[in-house]
């Protein structure tokens, strides 16, 4: 495998450095006009990029509602040896859940006990963090963790009147039904 692949278009030389290779290459640019040939050269040194993963969210201080969908994000560079990433959730240092996904830089996490690999329930508290790693690499295990803890919190309570609609007109003395939907309320009362 070549260290550098070169393509020329008009007066522009484009160099494509091959992944995971390092070394030096001499590039010679040569031009001819009638019987005259001129050239110039340069030496290009390529250093392989060390593979790494960086967790970007949650990275500490977030408060995410249980039952919500949140996006776990990360960046990665270099050859990780796998396109599958392992995301592990910890609570106060103890492993409680695990997910796998392709290395796209994000994972949509439904914070629910019905998520495969999740505990029977999540407790609303702090002390959560995640660790993202490559799943298989015969030579190097690469990972990063949240820089700080994040919290899972109880979902916000809500109530919405579904009937009557705004602007409804009722006759005096008539009987009417009022309906509503609610979430995360232990009791609802009509006042």
Can you describe what's shown?
With 191 residues, this protein is an all-beta fold. It is 0% helix and 53% strand. It is built from no helices and 15 strands. The protein has strands at 4-9, 12-17, 23-33, 36-46, 52-57, 63-65, 69-77, 84-91, 94-102, 106-110, 125-134, 143-145, 150-153, 158-163, 179-183. The strands form 5 sheets. Strands 6, 8, 9, 11, 12 and 13 form a 6-stranded mixed sheet that branches. The termini are far apart. The mean pLDDT is 83.
Helix content: under 10%
Radius of gyration: 29 Å
The rough form would be described as elongated
Name the poorly predicted regions. Answer: none
What share of residues are in beta strands? over 45%
Major sheet size, sense and barrel closure: 6 strands, mixed
Count the DSSP helices: 0
Element-level helix/strand string: EEEEEEEEEEEEEEE
Mean pLDDT across all amino acids = 83
Q: What is the first-to-last residue Cα distance?
A: 77 Å
Structural class: mainly beta
The count of β-strands is 15
């Amino acid at each position: 495998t070549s260290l550098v692949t070169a393509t020329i278009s008009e007066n522009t030389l484009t160099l494509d450095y091959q992944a995971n290779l390092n070394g030096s290459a001499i590039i010679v640019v040569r031009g001819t006009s009638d019987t005259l040939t001129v050239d110039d050269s340069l030496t290009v040194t390529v250093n392989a990029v060390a593979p790494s993963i960086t967790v970007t969210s949650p990275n500490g201080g977030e408060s995410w509602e249980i039952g919500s969908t949140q996006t776990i994000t990360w960046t990665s560079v270099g050859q990780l040896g796998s396109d599958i990433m392992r995301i592990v959730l910890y609570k106060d240092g103890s492993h409680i859940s695990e997910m796998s996904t392709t290395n796209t830089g994000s994972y949509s996490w439904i914070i629910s006990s019905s998520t495969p690999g999740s505990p029977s329930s999540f407790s609303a508290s702090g002390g959560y963090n995640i660790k993202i790693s490559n799943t298989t690499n015969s030579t190097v295990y690469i990972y990063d963790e949240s820089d700080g803890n994040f919290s899972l919190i109880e979902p916000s309570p809500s109530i919405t009147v579904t009937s009557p609609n705004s602007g409804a007109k009722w006759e005096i003395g008539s009987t009417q039904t009022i309906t509503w939907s609610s979430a995360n309320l232990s009791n609802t009362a009509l006042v």
